[in-house]
Amino acid sequence: MKFEDLLLEIDGFGKFQILILFILCLPRMNLPMHFLLHNFLAATPSHHCAIPHQEAFVNLTMEEVLLISIPREPDGTFKSCEMFSQPQFHLLLNSSLQPENNSIIQECQHGWVYDHSQFTSTISTQWDLVCEQRGLNQATATFFFIGVTMGAVVFGYLSDRFGRKAMLLLSLVCAVIFGMLSAASVSYSMLAVTRTLTGVALSGVSLIVLPLGMEWVDVEHRTFSGILTSMFWSVGNMLLAAVAYLVREWRWLLVAVTGPNTVFSPCSRWVPESARWLIANGKVKRAHRHLLRCARMNGRKDFAVSPENYSYITLFRTPVLRKISLFGVAFSYYGMSMNLTGFGLNMYLSQFVFGFIEIPAKMIMYVLVNRVGRRQSQAWALILTGLCIGANIVIPKPFTPLRSAVAIMGKGFSEAAFTTAFLYTCELYPTVLRQNGMGYSSFMARLGGALAPLVFLLDEVWRSLPEVTYCGVAVCCGLVAFLLPETLHVPFGLVGLAAPFRSLHSLPETTIHRFTHQKERNAAIKNTGCESCKTK
């Protein structure tokens, strides 16, 4: 009996599956609070060079001191990274006569003064990560995503080797430990290391939650469960805006977003191991125990349940699986998500709206992926994301409402692409390779996430270069997505099941015997192109 038929016998979407999905959705909701935390953790408030006190300033107001000490931008605001080497008292008479002699302008010599009206403190104000140190501020997000990238490989392999449940619990515990250590950081170096390790830990949660939930539901409800789990990401996205609005000090903000995992960790113990994984690894008795529990909770009768090692190398043995590795959705998604102040809205409102727009985007994708398929939905969502980013390059800055509307649409398309990507890649891999494959795909995506914050630094070369880069990558990835196979209504992993096995020598006999019916067995043999298999 195939596992899909077994799920139908015990009810592939009953009380048992709903309970599992609910528990798994809780840690999923916490993920964006860390993945997008950089927007608030490393926010840079308005600042200017600190001016040492002088006797000549006694009778001057603070505004007058700034006027004679700091040069102005063309729009009349004070420059953030420069000061006059000597006070320019003549500006008190006519402030419009800005000095043209650059020799009297120097970089800040005595630190910076920050506007604390919006943030009590951020890592930017804590360690002066501004001006020439601005790159270190952006690198904080990159360090986190480097950790996520490494974690995708590590937990992808470990989850296929030791099981989904054990690695999920390990991920949550490590996320709590390293998250709290991040909040207690006494130096930038310590913060960089602990945030990287937090990324490693949370990568396991991100990688395991969706496949573990989907491996317990039948084909008919697979899309629904994937979209539902993804919805909680959007809820967490909106909650981040509320938490960041209430907590303006960066250390307590880290504690606030890390704390929920202390509750989710014990809850994850109630989630059963994937029965698919247990059967694929020869642990039939344990699988039977979990399936029996599922059947009884769903009110179904008892039943009877009537293995192999793979690695990342297997993922590259066929053209089909090679194409799967080309997902670069995260680059454009995080490029938009980390530009909260670039569209004229309040950053807290932007965070909330960017999270809210994801919900209708997911609902639309739920309809589209079931009607037009995963491939077309994925490709066009990416292309439309790129077009929205490109449109905002040419829309003038004063058209704030129009720019905001286009940005919100682009964010919706990018989330639609992200949602489809996780659902799509989860379906493309067979059970014994699923976490390995998801790990590798996530590895490629998180590379995009790691590079996205650094691309903002390209505005020093050309102001629109970051947007052009995000636009180009999104459109190119959309075009590549047209090359992927379709998985609509296809059982888990069947798209590439025969692909790694091009000859009898690489097709284990146990794999053939899983196809109980003779017709299915012959179809599997035919797909391998092996004539000698027919005699077995």
From TrEMBL:
Domain of life: Eukaryota
InterPro entries xref list: MFS, MFS_dom, MFS_trans_sf
Keyword Transmembrane belongs to the record: yes
Alphabetical UniProt keywords: Membrane, Transmembrane, Transmembrane helix
Naturally occurring in which organism (per UniProt): Aquila chrysaetos chrysaetos
Protein's recorded name: Solute carrier family 22 member 7
Transmembrane segments: 12-31, 141-159, 165-184, 196-214, 226-247, 320-336, 348-368, 380-399
A GO molecular function held by the record: alpha-ketoglutarate transmembrane transporter activity
